[in-house]
Amino acid sequence: MSVARAQGTLNPGAMRIDKWLWAARLFKTRHLAVEAINAGRVELDGQRAKPAKMVRPGNRLTVRKDSLAWELTVLGIAQQRRPAAEAVLLYAEDEASRLRRQEKDRERRETGIYPDGAAKPTKRDRRLIHRFTGKAVP
Q1: What span, in angstroms and rounded, lies between the C-alpha atoms of 12 and 122?
Q2: Over its length of 138 residues, how does the chain's per-residue pLDDT go in tens digits?
Q3: Which residues contact 101 (CB under 8 A, 6 or more apart)?
Q4: Which of 74, 67, 65, 72 has the alpha carbon at shortest distance from 27?
Q5: Is this model's pTM higher than 0.85 or not?
């Protein structure tokens, strides 16, 4: 394999999926993107992806994080990670996907239940925890 092909310069309209997910700010680091891909939480055109798979404009992605899922269409490729305002221009989210995510977020806020199933402690709960553990209340 040539050096140019290994670096992905033969097709400037394509990029590794792990790098694209990072550049589009769907994951904070490339390492987290690779972990999600290897865990099967990222699909490219309906099939499980590998980190080195090339993504191009027009591809369809499904990305799952915790209980949320994004269904995206790739609109562009960025060679660098840019600010969030520019990163959202790299993809378009399906309307149904956006509505499902908003509904789940609304339910989570209403019930006060966090992803791990635990409710956030109230001020009174925190005082009791501090009293029990013997820590001074800040």
Answers
A1: 52
A2: 444 444 444 456 899 999 999 999 999 999 999 999 999 999 999 999 999 999 999 999 999 998 889 999 999 999 889 999 999 999 999 999 999 999 988 887 777 665 555 677 888 988 988 988 887 766
A3: 68, 69, 70
A4: 65
A5: no
